[in-house]
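Re: your question from the hallway

Yes, I did run it. Sequences:
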Amino acid sequence: MNLRAAAIAVLVPLLCAAPRNARGTDWDPRVQGAIQRVARAADADGHARALAALADLEAAGRARLVRQLFLFGEAARDTRDAMVFGALVERYGWTADEVVGPLVPLLDGADAERRAALARVFAHYEGRTLTDAADFTVFRPHLAGGANEAVVRHVVEADPASAVALLSGALPVDPTRARELASDAAALDRTLRAAWFGAGGRDAAPDAAGAAALARLAAGEHWWARLAAARAAREGKGLAAAATIDLLDADPHPFVREAARRVTRR
Amino acid sequence: MTPPDRQGPAAPRAPRPRGTDGARSRAGRAWVVALLGTVALSTAVAQTQFLDRARAPRPDLTAFRPRNLGGYAPFARTSVPDALEEDAQLGPGIRRAGATDDDPVAEDDLIELVVDRGGLADAIVLERTAPHLKLWTTHDRQPGTEVPFVGDRTAPLAFGGGAATYWVEWVGTTGALGALELRANSGGKLLDRVVLHAFDGLVVALGGEGQVPGLPVDPNHGTFVVATELYERGYDVLMRDEDEVDGTGAGPVYDQVVTALTDRGVHELAVFGFSHGGGSTADLLARLDAASAGLPAYTVGFTSYTDGVGNASDIDVSQESTRPADSGFHANHYQHGTLFEDFFLDGTAIANSEPPPAGLDVETTPWGANATHYDVDDYVQVTSFLLSNLEPRVGR
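Structure:
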C-alpha cells in the first residue's frame, strides 16, 4: 500500500465521522446546515425555501431539530445566529414539553457552561420572576422514575426553595417528611426573599424560622435537600452560616460538595 | 511622555519688491537670500531642539484605566493620555475600596501607575494629596508590598531599570479627588502629577444575545463601541454579556452593581443594552429597585434600549416594553422586524422615552429606513445619541 492510499484509508473515516462540538455532543451537519441557511439567507425567496426545508426536518424529527437548534444557538457568536432558536420556537408554536423534553438528556454529564446554557432555555418555561417562584411542572415527567440527578441539580440551582417543594412531592419521600420539607421550602423562600429585598441587605442573618429551616435542610437525609441549603448559602453570609456551609463542604454527595465549595472557597 | 511646548519659527516677512535698477536688485536678492538662510537656520535649530527634547527622557507618571475581573479584559490596557492626566473628569479614575469590597475573581480595583525616572540620576519620590491613597508594588496587595507614606511622602523610589510599576489603592468609601506627585527628593521640584477621581458612577453595558465583549472591540457591536468610548473617557464600565443577568435581574452583574453601591461609594448608575441586553437592562434595574430598601441611595441618570427584546430566557423574542425602573432619562431606538430580515425581532415605542415622546423609530429617518434588528445598534446616530446624553447625566 502506498503512502497516499494509507492516508486515504486513515483520513476518510475520520472526516466522515459525525463532528462533535467542543463539548463532545454530536451535532448533525445536515440539520446545522439547514438552520444556517435559514439564519443566513441572502434574500426572501432563499429564506422561504430554507424555512420549507427546515419544516420538513421538523416533521421528520422534532426532538432532533430542537437539540440541533440549541447547539446552533450555543455556538452562536452574533445576535442573528443566537436568536434563531427562539424565533423558530415562536414560529412553530412548540409546547414546553416539546422543547424541554429533547434537551433534558443534554444535562447528563454537562459541564457548567452547558448547564447554564440549558438553564437559560428552561427558564422560558419556569415562569420565575421577581415576585413569582419557579414552576417546575415541566420537569415532573423526568422525575417519574426517581431522582434524575441532572434534573435535580438544575432545579435546585434555578430556585432551591421551589425545587425542594417539587422534589418532596415528586420523589418517593415519606408523607410526613414530605410535609416537613414542603414547610421548610416555604420558609426558605421567605428567607431568600428577605435576603434579596429586605432592609437588612443580603448579608443579614435570617430570622429564627428561616435559620431553622436552613439548618434542617442542611442536615437532611436527602442529598437534594442538602444541595438546596448549599445553593441558598450562596445568597448571603447570614444564610451561609445558617446552612452550616462548612459541613456541607465535606458532604458525601459530589453535587452538594461542589455547591458548598462555591461558597467556602470564594 | 508629554511633548514639550513647541513654537515654530516666526513667519518671515515678505521680501521687498524687486528693485528696477541692477544694484538695488542685487542688494534685494542678497537680502532675501540672507533672510531665507536665517529662517532656514532658525528652523533647523528649533527642530533640533525639539527633537533633542523629544528624545531626551524626562521623569513621568503614566496612569492606566481600571482593571476588571483580575485583568484588563474585556478592555485593552489603556493609558491615560498625558494631556488628560490631571483632568478631574477625563483623567484616571479609581474605585474606592470599602472594607467588605467583593471582587468577583481577584483584586482588580488598584490602578496601575508607571513611574519613569527619565534618566534622572537624582532620587525621586511620590507625594500624595489625599490620605485615601495607598501605594503597592503588587496589583493584589501582597503582604510586604505596600510602599509606605511618611508625612504623605514616600522614600526614594527604587528602580530596577528606567521605570517602575506601582499600584494605587483608594482606601475607604469617601473622598473625591486625590493627586500623586512625582518630585525630586532633593529640593522637592515637581516633575509630574496625576489626579485620580474616585468613581461616583458606574456604567453597565449589555450587548445582544451572542455578543460577547472581547478584544478588539467588534465594530458591529454598537453597545460595546459606546462602552469602550466611555471607558476611555474616564468612566468605570461593566461591559458584559447579557447572559450574566437572568430573568429576575440576578447574576454576576447585579452582584457587582450591589458591591459598587454598598462598598465603593458609587451612587450614580447608567445602564443600557441592545436586544436581549435591553431586556436585561429592565430586569437588572427592576431587581435593584425591589432591593432598594437594603441598599444605599442611588440614582439612575441614564438608560437606553436599542431594539429592546425581553430576556426572561435565551429564547424570549417578546418586545421589551417596560420603561426601566427609576430611570431619569430613557433613550429608546427601535425598528420594525420582518420575517426574512430578522424574524420579526424588534423593540417598540415606550412612553416617556427619548427622543420624546416614546423614543425613535429609526425607520422613519433617512439613515435608518433600512435598519434591521441586527444592525440598528451600529448606527452612528444611535451610538452618538447614547454618548451625548449619558455624559451630562451620569457622573464619573
